[in-house]
């Protein structure tokens, strides 16, 4: 089974600090990715003795673990246990921002500089969680941001402070809200009305003011509440719905790209192609060709 080991990187969209730099026992890579467009898919792989966490702060990312698919959006977390094969596919990628980190449990009584009692308690808690997909709060997101910033500052005092923030995040995980069977419960009836309206009319020229009126919230409150409940901003949700429909048309019809763009509700084929490329790493034509080739191989 392939094992992927990331290297140190400090670029605009990918900041990854590795153990050889931070020297924190029990912590391997700690990264913050802020991707303005879809990244390359990650092939099937595993991590021996490592629990890997992906914590989305913006956008959407899809993970496959064994026979299950996990659709992660803003303020949600996915993690894999040691030796568990997981991957992302080219059809699941889109612009997003996330913190990712790895906890090495080889020495499970020496995690993150904790004493033996606390380290073993953390190990037992992490390896006995019943759910891999959980929702965290804005406070926990702040813990992650402060943990990353302080650990990357790389002074003795900042590393210690960063570890405290990361430990606080980890010990709060049992309080996170599990997302069961990938069905995200929309408990707010006002936002539920808006989602129903979008699902029925996404190909039309929907305006946020119109959607806020349907919700009964003010425009500013609506945008905050929608992201809080759904995980992504309303404009992104509309774009995802349009792209899902466009993919269906590319797969199931021979319609011209320009017509598909219009059918899906995009203002022009050029804009459609730009958005499609950013969210999938393919042009619409490349996506259709790849789908047809894959279909031919399985017939």
Question: What can you see in these coordinates?
Answer:
By secondary structure, the chain is an alpha+beta fold. It has 2 domains: 9-182, Jelly Rolls (Sandwich), CATH 2.60.120.10; 189-297, Arc Repressor Mutant, subunit A, CATH 1.10.10. The chain contains 11 helices and 10 strands. It has helices at 19-22, 116-127, 138-153, 156-171, 189-201, 208-215, 219-230, 234-252, 257-264, 269-280, 284-297; strands at 9-10, 14-17, 27-35, 50-65, 68-73, 76-80, 86-87, 96-104, 133-135, 177-178. Strands 1, 2, 3, 4, 5, 6, 7, 8, 9 and 10 form a 10-stranded antiparallel beta sheet that branches. It is globular, with a radius of gyration of 21 Å. The two termini are 28 Å apart.
What name does CATH use for the topology of the largest domain?
Jelly Rolls
Class from secondary-structure proportions: alpha+beta
The largest pleated sheet is described as: 10 strands, antiparallel
Number of self-contained structural domains: 2
Order of helices and strands: EEHEEEEEEHEHHEHHHHHHH
The count of strands amounts to 10
What is the CATH domain class of the largest domain? Mainly Beta
Span between termini = 28 Å
Uncertain runs are none
CATH-level-2 architecture of the largest domain: Sandwich
CATH superfamily of the largest domain: Jelly Rolls
Radius of gyration: 21 Å
């Amino acid at each position: 089974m392939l094992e992927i080991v990331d290297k140190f990187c400090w670029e605009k969209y990918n900041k990854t600090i590795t153990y050889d730099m931070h020297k924190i026992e029990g912590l391997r890579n700690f990264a913050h990715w802020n991707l303005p467009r879809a990244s390359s898919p990650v092939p099937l792989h595993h991590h021996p003795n490592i629990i890997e966490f992906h914590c989305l702060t913006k956008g959407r990312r899809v993970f496959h673990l064994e026979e299950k698919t996990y659709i992660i959006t803003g303020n949600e977390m996915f993690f894999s246990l040691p030796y568990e094969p997981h991957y992302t596919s080219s059809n699941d990628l889109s612009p997003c921002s996330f913190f990712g980190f790895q906890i090495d449990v080889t020495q499970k009584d020496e995690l993150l500089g904790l004493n033996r009692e606390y380290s073993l308690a953390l190990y037992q808690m992490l390896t006995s969680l019943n759910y891999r997909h959980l929702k965290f709060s804005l406070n926990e997101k702040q813990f992650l941001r402060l943990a990353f910033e302080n650990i990357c500052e790389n002074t003795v005092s900042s590393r210690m402070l960063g570890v405290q923030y990361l430990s606080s995040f980890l010990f709060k995980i049992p309080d996170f809200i599990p997302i069961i069977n990938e069905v995200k419960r929309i408990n707010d009836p006002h936002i539920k009305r808006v989602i129903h309206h979008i699902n029925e009319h996404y190909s039309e020229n929907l305006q946020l003011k119109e959607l806020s009126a349907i919700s009964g919230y003010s425009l500013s409150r609506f945008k905050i509440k929608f992201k809080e409940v759904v995980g992504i901003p309303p404009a992104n949700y509309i774009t995802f719905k349009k792209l899902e429909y466009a993919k269906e048309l590319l797969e199931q019809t021979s319609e011209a790209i320009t017509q598909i763009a219009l059918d899906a509700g995009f203002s022009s084929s050029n804009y459609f192609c730009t958005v499609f490329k950013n969210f999938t790493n393919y042009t619409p034509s490349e996506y259709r060709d790849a789908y047809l080739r894959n279909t031919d191989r399985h017939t």
